Amino acid sequence: MDERAAEAGAFGGNINQHGSFYFQGQAYGHSKKLQVAVEYRIAEREAQRLHRVANVSAVARQCGVGRKFVAKVRDELLLMIGF
Predict the structure, then answer these.
(1) Measured distance CA(23)–CA(17) in Å, rounded
(2) Could you write out the three-class secondary structure of the chain?
(3) Which of 23, 44, 47, 54 has the fewest CB atoms within 10 Å, i.e. the most exposed one?
């Protein structure tokens, strides 16, 4: 365990695979959700231009969250726009 992880653990927190801090069991705030939504929409537009699908892993790395969170935000976006 590196020094950052040990320090985060001393406060009851953790560090994810992308180096972002989090508390187990707590949801990300609305600002993080907005960041993921914006970055996913940008990635989606670029992917469509290239006739591909957006790379969830790349968005997760960029935003410092897990792939499951990006997929959750993506699914909520699809529900909002009626797909």
Answers:
(1) 14
(2) CCHHHHHHHHCCCEECCCCCEECCCCCCCHHHHHHHHHHHHHHHHHHHHCCCCCCHHHHHHHHCCCHHHHHHHHHHHHHHCCC
(3) 23
pTM to 2 decimals?
0.73
Tens digits of residue pLDDT in 28-52:
888 889 999 999 999 999 999 999 9
Higher-pLDDT residue of 8 and 67 is: 67
Which residues neighbour 53 within 8 Å (Cβ) at sequence distance 6 or greater? 44, 47
Q: Please report where in the chains the tokens 């609305």 appear, as a residue.
A: 30
CB burial of residue 11 (10 Å; 0-12, 13-18, 19+): exposed
